[in-house]
Amino acid sequence: MSILDDLKYTFRQPDNTLKQLIIINVLVYLVFLIIGTPLGWMGYGWLERMALYYLSLPSEPMAFLFKPWTLITYFFTHEGFFHILFNMLNLYWFGMIITEYLGSRKLLSLYVLGGIAGGILYMIMYNVMPVFVERNISGLLIGASASVLAIVVAAATLLPNYTLNLLIIGPVKIKWIAAALVLMSWALADDSGGNAGGNIAHLGGALLGWVFIKQLQRGNDLGRPVLAVTDFFTNLFKRKPKLRVSHRRATSSARTNGSTTTSRPGTPDQNEIDRILDKISSSGYESLSKEEKQKLFQASQKD
């Protein structure tokens, strides 16, 4: 099986969002690396810089009006090796947690909404805060850090006592990892830090991750618009099956007063899921019974 076949298989698999997000980020990085290097040798490095410009989110509102797609494309674009390495490692570690307990579709919602929230906060701060306005500071934003930090904070909000074994340090609860990353971004979110815009975007993503889980625990899924849009475009390119007409006799159990009903036995309702999420938030995932874990898993498959 070729690399292209492997990629096709990965994107055809259902509930495979984590791998798909990592592959998209890595492919964009590799395209710039593989094509941009020889362009620089031949004196055409400006072509790479121009392509990067049209994928990067600008801080100036007028520039954004001419390329609004950058509010999405910027969080799939990286330039430095360590930049993409650390982002993809954190996306994998914490994305696995979100996928396991909330499902792949919630992970996609967090990634997209976290990136959008980070980008919007970045543009607002650069055009409202005096420290940036008076010094006429502007810039371009790239990288998935805001999206990734939204996922990190969401996982820590949902399962604060979940423990990861870090190299050298050892076991650490993810609430402390999330707190350290947020505090680091807060400390560096000034114009003297060299990456003020990036750290401001991190804070926007972190806030979104916290709000997303808190709203989910109240029964409100902020990711529904994202899923509606992605489902629309997915269905546009999905091959429609051929229609087949078949006839079979209806059983007496399928007919009640001339109507037919179907149900999914064992599927938990929203109130039950909210109760389980509240229990996780207060006592940790380990406090759930086997039956409650199964119900949470069933609910994640439902989306």
UniProtKB/TrEMBL annotation:
For region Disordered, the annotated ranges are 244-274, 284-303
What species was this sequence derived from? Pontibacter rugosus
Q: Which GO terms describe its biological process?
A: proteolysis
Q: Which GO terms describe its molecular function?
A: peptidase activity
InterPro entries associated with the record: DUF6576, Peptidase_S54_rhomboid_dom, Rhomboid-like_sf
Q: Which UniProt keywords apply?
A: Hydrolase, Membrane, Protease, Transmembrane, Transmembrane helix
Question: In the Enzyme Commission scheme, what number(s) does this protein have?
Answer: 3.4.21.105
Q: What is this protein called?
A: Rhomboid family intramembrane serine protease
Q: Where is the composition biased (Basic and acidic residues)?
A: 288-303
The listed locations are: Membrane
Q: Where is the DUF6576 domain?
A: 269-302
